[in-house]
Specification:
heterodimer, A: 6-stranded mixed beta sheet, globular
Chain lengths: ~110, ~110
């Protein structure tokens, strides 16, 4: 089946610290992978995506590389800001059943000044 | 306008009540979705409408009844819910395939 496993939160970091949020997946075929972010009181927003192995998605200083050999799509940012405080969801869209996204449980990030 | 608007933001209902959740988008998207999210759990797909036709029903109990009156609106009619149905209900839309879903901020539902 299709599933996504994210690291447990919450994660608390000081401003300008390095961020890694781990994500691994199980899927048949060649899924597309996504990171969504949910800021307080708002809906989920697409942060970045990668559609094939070795692709790197990037946006707003965040990066994630699609690693097929380790079935991973870890989210990284070199220097976090207070405004990055949010819940981050890793997700996959299977090659088949294209109308469904499978989400991870979400990781809450709090950045303190 | 790049928003998906959901109303109400909060809803408390008894098990015998009938209520409806509403979702609206004006981005010209032709696919609309209902997700259910329990606390500290990932969103789970309930229904997908594509071109105003129901294309996916993820074995959702009949006490949840979706409706897509036109390409901009999506409703979720609720009847005889159970306390375990308490959750955040998220609406989303996309151009077609869910490469980029736009989510509303959700309706927090409590069933007493």
């Amino acid at each position: 089946g299709n599933s996504v496993t994210q690291m447990e939160g919450p994660v608390t970091l000081s401003e300008e610290a390095f961020l890694t949020i781990n994500c691994t997946y199980t899927a048949t075929g060649y899924p597309s992978l996504f990171w969504y972010v949910q800021y307080p009181g708002e809906g989920l927003q697409l942060l970045l995506k990668a559609t094939k192995a070795d692709d790197k998605g990037s946006n707003k200083g965040f990066e994630a590389t699609y690693r097929k050999e380790t079935t991973s799509f870890h989210l990284e940012k070199g220097s976090v800001q207070v405004s990055d405080s949010a819940v981050y969801f890793c997700a996959l869209r299977a090659q088949t059943g294209a109308n469904n996204l499978f989400f991870g449980t979400g990781t809450r990030l709090t950045v303190i000044p | 306008d790049t928003e998906v608007t959901q109303t109400p933001k909060h809803l408390v209902m008894g098990m015998t009540n009938k209520k409806s959740l509403k979702c609206e988008q004006h981005m010209g998207h032709r696919a609309m979705y209902w997700y259910k999210q329990k606390a500290k759990k990932p969103p789970e797909l309930m229904f997908v409408y594509s071109y105003e036709k129901l294309s996916i029903n993820e074995s959702v109990p009949s006490r949840f009844s979706p409706e897509c009156p036109n390409s901009s609106l999506l409703n979720l009619h609720l009847h005889a819910l159970q306390p375990e149905d308490s959750a955040l209900y998220l609406c989303a839309s996309s151009q077609s395939l869910p490469e980029k879903l736009f989510f509303g901020s959700g309706t927090q539902l409590s069933v007493l």
